[in-house]
């Protein structure tokens, strides 16, 4: 009895059909197939170990980033509070300076009122009124030219 000669395509198709059953049933073939796969592919334990190490590294990086973020937030808060205190101090200084300038202006105003009153007393009521009107007219003319 002669066996038919198989071409390469037929051999491949035969292997595809029969190999799964042979791997399930024959331990030597299964071990051989596993050995072939291990030459090209990492085994499950090794792969899971790599994945676990990568996940641990990512977790560590995330924790580090979280710490840095919290430190940056705390630093920004300190800077903000420091600037707020400076602004408040500056505003207080500005208020005091404004109050001082206002008091000086009011003192000058009071002296001016006394001086005008004294002039009015010297010149008499009529001359003071005329002087006041002339001065006011001169000021208004200068202002609206």
Please provide a brief summary of the model.
With about 140 residues, the protein is mostly helical. Helix content is about 90%, strand content about 0%. The protein has 2 domains: about 5-40, no CATH class; about 40-145.
Intertermini distance: 134 Å
Backbone structural class: mainly alpha
Average pLDDT taken over every residue: 86
So how many helices?
3
Give the number of domains: 2
**What is the oligomer described by this structure?**
single chain
- The number of E-state strands comes to 0
**Would you list the SSEs in sequence order as H and E?**
HHH
Strand content: under 5%
Shape, please? rod-shaped
The radius of gyration computed from the alpha-carbon positions, rounded to a whole number of angstroms, is: 51 Å
Helical coverage, percent range: over 70%
The residue ranges in which pLDDT falls below 50 over 5 or more consecutive positions are none
Largest sheet: none
Description of the structure:
The chain is mostly helical. It has two domains: 7-41, no CATH class; 42-143. Helix content is 91%, strand content 0%. Helix 1 crosses helix 2. It is rod-shaped.
